[in-house]
Amino acid sequence: MTASKIEWTDRSDWNPIRGCTRVSPGCGGPGDHGGCYAEAMAARFSDPGQWGHGYAERTAKGGRWTGKVEVQWDRLTLPISWRKPAKIFASSTSDFFHKALEIGEIAELFGVMIAAHHLRGHVFQVLTKRADILHMTLNDPEFWEIANAAAGMHIMDNTDPLNRRSDDARATSDDYGPDNPPPGIWLGVSIEDPPRADERREDFAETPASVKFVSYEPALGPVDWTGWEFVQQIIGGGESGPKARPMHRDWQRTTRDFCAPRGIAYFFKQWGEWAPVGKLYDDAGDTDETVAAENALLSAKGRQFDDGDFWTDPNDVQLVDGEMYNWANEHAQPPSDVLVIKRLGKKRAGRLLDGREWNEVPA
């Protein structure tokens, strides 16, 4: 089994779709800030004969998708051959619901997932930014006809002929559809800021799924979670990579505090490149663990905050009420409620929020 480096899944090595296109700020921002890790990786391996050739290209501003998107049929049934049950982040380098894919192609992918859950016990986590296509596809009867037929074929092909009796549960599968979504497929929508949350909420709420989750990563703005009570999990995190944009700690605190009383699992994946390292005032809401964690980071970076002086450098970013401020002076006095964060790198920034990890998953 190939373990994934993504904290909320077991495997991310089933990538039956190649290619993608940018669709929202989470894929990259103005002035080329941030960026898609899959796009950069595909561009890195875009020379003739490499897997990214034709799907991405290298440019002066970094990797760029070419717009070509295709199903890799030779990788279609890989999960059925994996016998150890696992949570599988499906197509981590593309999007199941890209507009370039036909409904029949998506249905064939779902047929494999239904069969692999039935035969091997795998759980698939499917994440998209295209909630409108997700909603339209999974409410289409034609889609489920194709998916169920494909699942049945894969189940029969991978069941011992001696067990292929009509009353043998292993050799048969349920008839899935909008009123009976398959249990082994979790559907997720990625959002990064308030406009995307508002834009994708209604379509996702009306999409049939046994488990629904949200990836609030990269978090690029504070989200009002009102109306999202229908999901079973929210995964939060900051952006990583050389062009990563900072995330305010309060955006994740608000998310966590929304989840807790509603029985929604909260998973804090990472700070990303940037993390809070201190502040110039006493916050009565901070726990001892939070203060200790921040002091440890301050000590690790060798920074000091004495007598109200504010010590900064060009790589510091300060966030005040969710807005970003850059302070050019070596010693300057910022507003009293400033939160100081620094570029520490993903590994050093870690994934502690208020002094602990948050690893909740749906029941």
In a nutshell, what does this entry contain?
The chain is built from nine helices and 14 strands.
Structure description:
The chain has nine helices and 14 strands. The chain has 363 residues and is α/β, with parallel strands linked by helices. Helix 4 runs parallel beside helix 6 (194-205). The radius of gyration is 23 Å and the shape is globular. It starts with 16 loop residues before the first strand and ends in a 14-residue tail after the last helix.
Features:
363 residues, alpha/beta, six-stranded parallel sheet, four-stranded antiparallel sheet, 9 helices, 18% strand
Sum up the overall morphology in one term: globular
Mean pLDDT: 84
E-strand count: 14
Uncertain stretches of 5 or more adjacent residues: 280-284, 297-336
Along the chain, the helix and strand elements come as EHEEEHEHEHHEHEEHEEHEEEH
The helix tally amounts to 9
The biggest sheet, with number of strands, parallel, antiparallel or mixed sense and barrel status, is: 6 strands, parallel
Structural class: alpha/beta
Give the fraction of residues assigned to helices: 25-40%
Provide the spatial order of strands within the biggest beta sheet.
5-6-7-8-9-10
What radius of gyration results from the CA coordinates?
A: 23 Å
From the N-terminal CA to the C-terminal CA, the straight-line distance is 24 Å
Oligomer: single chain
As a percent range, the share of strand residues is 15-25%
